[in-house]
Amino acid sequence: MGWYPTTTKYIYEDSQRQPTIIILRCDLPDGRKDIRPISRAPDGWMRRMPQPPWPIYRLPDIESANLYKPVVIVEGEKAAEAAIRCGLLATTSAGGAKAAEKTSWAPLRDRDVIILPDHDIAGYEYAETVAALCHDAGARNIRIVRLADHIPGFPDGGDIADLLAHETWYGLRIDGTDDPRALGEIIKKWAAKTDPWTPPEAEGIPEWQPFPVDALPEPLAKFVRQASASVGADPVLVVFPLLACLGRCLGLRAAIEMKDDHTWIEYPIIWSAVGTHSGGGKSPALQLALSSYPCVRYIKRGRQWNLSYGGKEVPHGRQKERRLQGTELEHLQRVPRPAGIHHPVVQ
User: Fold this and answer.
1) Number of helices and strands in the chain (H, E)
2) Are 299 and 307 in contact (CB under 8 A)?
3) Which of 83, 79, 85 has the alpha carbon at shortest distance from 178?
4) Torsion over CA of 8, 100, 198 and 194, rounded to 10 degrees?
5) Among residues of the chain, what percentage have pLDDT more than 90?
6) 88-105: pLDDT as tens digits
7) For the whole model, what pTM was predicted?
8) Are 97 and 121 in contact (CB under 8 A)?
9) Helical H segments across 65-213, by residue range
10) In angstroms, rounded to a whole number, what is the distance separating the alpha carbons of residues 54 and 77?
11) Sheet containing 89-91: order of strands
C-alpha cells in the first residue's frame, strides 16, 4: 500500500470458515480508496483474486442462519458491515460492481433477498445483475429497495454505510435512538412494501402457442384430447411421445425427398423430449402414450388409422405383426425390420 497503512481488511471464508480471500482496503488522503486482494493457494497466499467462482461475503453466517430470515445484498464489504450493524443478515460479492457474475450465489437458494444498491447508475446496474443471478440460483423472493426512493436528498453514490453514518440517518432516527437495529427494521418495512423483482421478458422469444391437436388425424386427435384430459396434463405431453412411436411404426419404408435430385432424403426418425413442473402430469401422460393402453397401429393397406384400447380388437388374418414391449432404446434395437411387415405395432 505504499506508505499508507491498511485501513480495513475483509475476510471471505468457505463453508468451513477457512479464509479464502482477504480484501485489504486503504482509504487515501484524497478521498479515494485503494483495494488489494490476496487469496489462498495450495502453496501459500497470492496477491491476486483466485479463479472464480468466489464465495459470497460472510458465507458461513448465511448458511447457518434461519432459512426464513431475509438476506440483504449490498455493494461492497463496508456497506455489508454497516448492514450487519443494523441487525440485518447481509452479504456482498467480491471484485466490485462489475464482477458479480464471478461469485457463486447458490447459498441464496430458497431464500428471500433484499438488494440495497448504491444510489448511482453503477449501483442500480449491479442490483439488476445480482437480482438475475439470485433468480437463477433459485432465490424465493427478490426485492430491490432504492434508498433514494425513501430518503429525500439522499446523496449521489450513497449507500447504507453513508445512511448509518449520518447524524440523524437523514431524518429517520426515531425518538433519538442510537440503536442501528431500528434502522434495519425500517429497511425491512420498506422491503415488505416493495414489489418483488421479476426478470425482464427475453427478446426474440415467440409467444407460447398450444399444440395444434386438430392437425392430427382424427382418431389420434381424439385420443390425445381424452388422454390429456384424463390426467390433467397439457396435450403436448401425450403428443410428443406418441409422434415418436408413430415414426417408429413407419420405420425406414417411407421417406420425404427434400430435393428433386434425391440428394436430401429424410426418414421419420423422431426423437422427442418433454419437461414440465412437478405434478404436471408428465409421467401418466407418457404411460398412456407408450404403454399398451392404447395400442396404436398404422394400417398400410388402405392408408387407414386405427386405434384400440388395452391391446384388444387386434385384427386377425392379416400379415404378421411385430409388437414392441417397453420403451427403452434397447428394445427398439432388438426389433427386426424384415420386408413384408406392413402392420408394425407399438404397445
Assistant:
1) 9, 14
2) no
3) 85
4) 10
5) 49
6) 999 999 999 999 999 999
7) 0.59
8) no
9) 77-85, 121-137, 160-165, 180-192
10) 14
11) 89-91, 71-74, 112-116, 141-144
Q: Assess contact for 103 and 130: CB atoms under 8 A.
A: no
Peptide bond into 53 cis (omega under 30): yes
Q: Model confidence at 1, in pLDDT bands (50, 70, 90)?
A: very low
Fold of 58-192: Dna Topoisomerase Vi A Subunit; Chain: A, domain 2 (3.40.1360)
C-alpha separations of 285 from 208, 242, 306, 324, 330 in Å: 21, 10, 20, 19, 22
Is the model more confident about 1 or about 50?
Answer: 50
Q: Which residues contact 206 (CB under 8 A, 6 or more apart)?
A: none
Dist. CA 263–CA 130, nearest whole Å: 51
With vertex at residue 341, the alpha carbon angle to CA 337 and CA 343, rounded to the nearest 5 degrees, is 115
Cα distance between residue 166 and residue 172, in whole Å: 10
Q: What digits encode the pLDDT tens for the residues 266-311? A: 777 778 888 787 777 888 888 888 764 344 443 333 344 444 444 4
The whole-angstrom distance between residue 318's C-alpha and the CA centroid of its chain comes to 52
CA atoms within 13 A on the CB side of 68: 0
Alpha carbon distances (Å) from 266 to 242, 259, 344: 19, 10, 20
Distances (CA, A) of 94 to 35, 75, 78, 169, 293: 11, 9, 12, 27, 57
> Highest mean pLDDT: which of 49-53, 225-229, 301-305?
49-53
Phi, psi (rounded to 5 degrees) for 256: -110, 125
Quote the CA–CA distance of 144 and 306 in Å, as a whole number: 58
Q: Tell me the pLDDT tens digit for each residue of 63-83.
A: 999 999 999 999 999 999 999
Residue positions counted in the chain: 347
Domain assignments of the chain as residue spans, ordered by start: 1-51, 58-192, 213-346
- Model pLDDT for residues 108-147, shown as the tens digit of each residue: 999 999 999 999 999 999 999 999 999 999 999 999 999 9
